[in-house]
Amino acid sequence: MVLVHCVFDKCGNQRKKNGKISFFSFPKEPDLLQKWINFINTHNPTKLSEQALDRERMKICHMHFEKNQVATKSNSDRVLVRNSVPRCPPGIV
């Protein structure tokens, strides 16, 4: 099992450590991906580039999205609303 972690340095959420946290994969659409990377680089000491992105391990946890950006399915799984961009930096959530 691959250890999935939130890309924010100050967050520390990991899939193995906490089953109550949902993790979202980086978008494949280039413009949306760039918005995610820009937000991360604004709030993270470790800067991220598209080339350095490990899509298998690096995710963003639901704690960095506004509540209206995350929907809950009938089976309690969380999904992102289309075109959502993270808005909640670590330490503010």
From TrEMBL:
<dbReference type="Pfam" id="PF05485">
    <property type="entry name" value="THAP"/>
</dbReference>
<keyword id="KW-0863">Zinc-finger</keyword>
<keyword id="KW-0862">Zinc</keyword>
<keyword id="KW-0238">DNA-binding</keyword>
<dbReference type="InterPro" id="IPR006612">
    <property type="entry name" value="THAP_Znf"/>
</dbReference>
<dbReference type="InterPro" id="IPR038441">
    <property type="entry name" value="THAP_Znf_sf"/>
</dbReference>
<protein>
    <recommendedName>
        <fullName>THAP-type domain-containing protein</fullName>
    </recommendedName>
</protein>
<dbReference type="InterPro" id="IPR026516">
    <property type="entry name" value="THAP1/10"/>
</dbReference>
<keyword id="KW-0479">Metal-binding</keyword>
<feature type="domain" description="THAP-type">
    <location>
        <begin position="1"/>
        <end position="89"/>
    </location>
</feature>
